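During the first year of the project, the team set up a workflow for recording each protein of interest as an amino acid sequence followed immediately by a discrete structure-token representation. This format lets reviewers and collaborators read both layers of information side by side without switching files. As required by the reporting guidelines, we include two representative entries from the current panel. The first entry is reproduced here exactly as it appears in our internal archive.
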Amino acid sequence: MTARFLVLVAIVTALLACAPLVLSGYYLNVCYITILYVGLAYGWNVISGYAGYFSFGQVAFFGSGAYVMGLLVLNLHWNWLAATVAGGLAGVVIAIPAGYVMLRLRGPFFSLGMFGLAQTAKVLFSASDKTGGGAGLYLPPGSDLKPVYWWTLAVALAAFITTAWLDRSAFGLRLRAMREDERVAGTLGVDVTRAKTVAFAISALIPALLGGGYAWFLTTVDPEAVFSPRLDLQAIVMAIFGGIGTLWGPLVGAVFMTQISEALWARFPQAYLMIFGGLLVALLIFMPRGLVPAIAAHFGKRDAGGGPLSTTTPSPHEQERGSRLPESVA
């Protein structure tokens, strides 16, 4: 990362951190939801964009983190932030054995398996009286959005930094090699099982950390809300629209699409979903690889992450590096 890049990130983060001091009500809510989806899109991008495992079930960890936070706050009287961190760690604990099983599947079987995992988690959490059953958990009222906003911003920033590291690290190179051809990556010395399990754990940690803050803001852990497939679908669409497997794609996609959705909803409350869907289809027809790769290709530059476009075929230099995987990065 260049010094100019780091300064730019620091300035933008500082400006966003000041938003709760000057905004309130609807506008602060829009900023919070936008940053929430930025974080969710980056979490999904790790396992699906870099490792090539298209997931429809990351909301399983979002909901699990929310429930763990709620149970710790209500039963052990933990501070909501400490409980939210514990919920994130719980998401990783769940992801490691789940990933060991689920990552044996590929393609649509993995996608459907993850969707089933999310629905199973929803049923398990809503079936027990200790977790409030179908009604969920009711948290102490009067929560303030400001600390939740700052927490969500911190998690989204950490997700961005993690993606920037993946874009340049040997581990990220291993994930991209697996995405192109997992068997070939294995023959080149990549520990495929370990690499994809770590990627799966990272992609679970991010939504699990976000889920606790989201539930605290709502003052309730509603199974229908925290395990909603809509959360997954919107994060996926945003990442795809921006450009999966890229550094800036999830950020651009989440910001762009959240603002368009809000503007359409304000003007056309009865038909905004139809208009939004049609606009999305049209954009993806003209930019099938996403907005960020399309802009980079148009200007004939490297992507904003500083390396070759992650969605393109590896360059000869990358292939040469890949041939030395057993010695250099394996």
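The second entry, processed by the same pipeline in the following quarter, appears below.
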Amino acid sequence: MIVGASAQAALPASPERRYALREVKARLHQASFRDAVVSAYGGRCAISDLPEPRLLDAAHIVMDADEQLGQPIVSNGLPLTKIHHAAFDTHLIGVDPDFRIHVSDRLLDLHDGPFLELGLKGIVGQVIQLPRRSEDRPDRDRLALRFEQFKKRA
């Protein structure tokens, strides 16, 4: 029962449920890639240092689709929170070959609540957390390629 001035107004129609079957190309190596990357960083986000592996993804530095450089190896990955992963993949944040974090002007120009200020804008210039083993560190050449993409799109 609807009460108040809008009681006479019709409720909006619910969207019709629709489904489709799709064939997808599944990356079967993704789970082992994620486990290796998150483990190399001690179960912490490389940007925020959040110590909850269930909230972390393994972001590719060079995308998986790149046959030459997109291999699922630890040095081509960063453990990132889901929000940082999305920002990294959309070039709203970038990491340079010296492991320093950059934030796009688009984000820097926004004014919103504490998460934006601390979680995204507040990371400018910080250095990412690095794994203990040097062979697990992000490949600087891959970071350079990815950072060029960030600069073009940011």
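For the second entry, the following points were noted during internal review. The chain has one domain: 28-153. The chain has a mean pLDDT of 90. Both points are flagged for discussion at the upcoming steering committee meeting.
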